[in-house]
Every structure is written in C-alpha cells, then in structure tokens.
Amino acid sequence: MPEQSSSRSRAPASLGGASPADLSNIVITSLGSSLIGVLVGINVGNRKRYVEAIIDRSRQLLVERDQQAQLAAAAERACIAREMHDIVSHSLTVVVALPEGATATDDPERARRATAQISDTARDALREMRAMLGVLRDGAPDAPLAAVDDDPVAAPVAAARRAGFPVTVQLAGAYPESAAVRRALARIVQESLTNAMRHAPHTTGIDVVIATTASETTVTVSNDGVTGSPNAGGHGIQGLRERADHVGGTLEAGPAERGRWRVHARLPQEPQPPSTPEDE
Q1: Which residue pairs, CB below 8 angstroms and at least 24 apart, start in 121-128?
Q2: Does 3 score more than 80 pLDDT?
Q3: Per-residue confidence at 268, pLDDT binned at 50, 70, 90?
Q4: Where are the alpha helices (DSSP H) in the chain?
Q5: In what order do the strands lie in the sheet with 216-223?
Q6: In the predicted model, what is the mean pLDDT of residues 172-187?
C-alpha cells in the first residue's frame, strides 16, 4: 500500500514524461514561432504596400508630366496665337484703311503715297512673321517671338498715322528696361490702335499716354467716335488682358466720359508671375 501511494504522487510530476521546464520551453518556442510568422507576414504586407505605393506614385508622376507637357503646349499655342493676331490684325487693318483713303481722294500724289504705304505695311508684317517663324524653328527656350525696339510704340503709331488716323503720344519718363514688359507695352498700344481704327473709323483723335515710375509703367489709350462695341466678336480685348497678365500687370477696357473708349494698363518694371484663380 505505501508503494502505490508513492507512485501516484510521482505521476503528476511527469505528465507523460515532460517536466514543467520542458513544457515551458515548448510553449515559448511555439509562441516565438508564431510571433516570427506574424512579423514576417506584417513585413511582407508592408513591403507589398510600399511597392504598390511606389508604382502608384510613378503613375501619378507620369500623368503629371503629361499634364505639364499639355499645359506648356497650350501656353505656347496661346503665345503664338497672340503674336499672330497682333501682327495680322494690325497690319490688315492698316492695309484696309489705306486704300479706302486712296480711293476717297482726287489727289493722285496722295493716292500714290497710300499705295506705297500699303506695300510698306505688308512688308513689315511679313518681316515680323518671318522673324517669329525663325524663332519657332530654332526652338530656343524663352526666346522672344519678335524683336523689341528701343521705342516700342513708334512702329504701330506710325502705321496708324499713315492710315490717316490722328494719334498723339505723351511719354513721361523712360520706357521699361525689361524686354518682356516693353513687348507687352508695344502690343497693348498696337492692339488698342487697331481696335480704334476698326471701331472708330471717324475718330477725331487717338491719345496714347505712357508714364513710368520706379515700380511700374502705365499706358492709357483713348479715342472718341466709337461705333458699335469693341467687345463684339474677335479676341482683341481678351488678348490685351492676356498681354498684361503675362508680365504680371493688369488691364481695364471700357467706355469712358464723353463717349470715349479707354484702355488702361499697369505693367510692373520687371515681369511677375501671371495671376492665378487662387490669387484672385
């Protein structure tokens, strides 16, 4: 009987031949293996998500690159369209006005001069277009589409005067040193004169007032005799605003006192980034 009692007391300690220390090791090993498996799974999952994020970002960069290329192409087309519009519209307006004046006069000498001026105007337009196309063929970045004279408004003013329109120019200060701002100034004056010749053929005077300070250049072109709305059809006013905005300036156009039409632009001395919808 005492021997049976002793054997029973030893049985729980053995638990099938495994000691408590062995069981502890087994449990720890099992937990460690499970933990390693979980960590490996987490690491694989994280790496998969990381690779997917890299691929997604690469796709986004490709889309953004294509969008930037499209925006750059659209901006270039808009710039070319503005230049073509300014050259062709102004020159053709002068070419149309000159023969009308030639046919209305009985003076053969005046008619002959008008015919010669038609040729000169057409040659000037052809020269500007060739210069612009030459820049486009060269593909030089940031190259101007047309050269800018030291007196940027002399040519359009002279052309308007040749067409028989009374144009006066008042200049306070010097023209801007920046070629981009001078180009914008020249095109604004040129397009304003073109609009005046088209929509106010019987104007008694077109006044161009340019004033330059240390921070900006302002230009005002006004005339009377407007028939119809200069906003009707075409893209003249829109092109004027784009010209000013391109160098960081502003432009207003509309009716003024005593039945006159007024274009007023403010241009910085140095080009500034164009305004965006977020800035407004």
Answers
A1: 121/91, 121/94, 121/95, 121/159, 121/162, 122/91, 122/95, 124/91, 124/155, 124/159, 125/87, 125/88, 125/90, 125/91, 125/92, 128/87
A2: no
A3: very high
A4: 2-14, 20-104, 108-138, 154-162, 179-199, 236-246
A5: 167-172, 206-212, 216-223, 261-268, 250-255
A6: 90
Measured CA to CA in angstroms, residue 106 lies from 94, 103, 181 at distances of 20, 8, 43
For 212-243, the pLDDT digits (tens) are 999 999 999 999 988 766 555 556 788 888 88
Percent of the chain with pLDDT over 70: 75
- How far apart CA 259 and CA 226 sit, in angstroms, is 8
Task: Give the integer Cα–Cα distance in Å for 103 and 96.
Answer: 11
* Residue 241: closest CA among 266, 223, 258: 266
Structure tokens that stand for 228 in this block: 């119809």
What is the token pair recorded at 28?
């720890």
pLDDT of the residue at 103: 74
How many CB atoms lie under 10 A from the CB of residue 6?
9
Query: What's the mean pLDDT in 45-51?
Result: 79
Q: CA-to-CA distance for 164 and 104, rounded, in angstroms?
A: 12
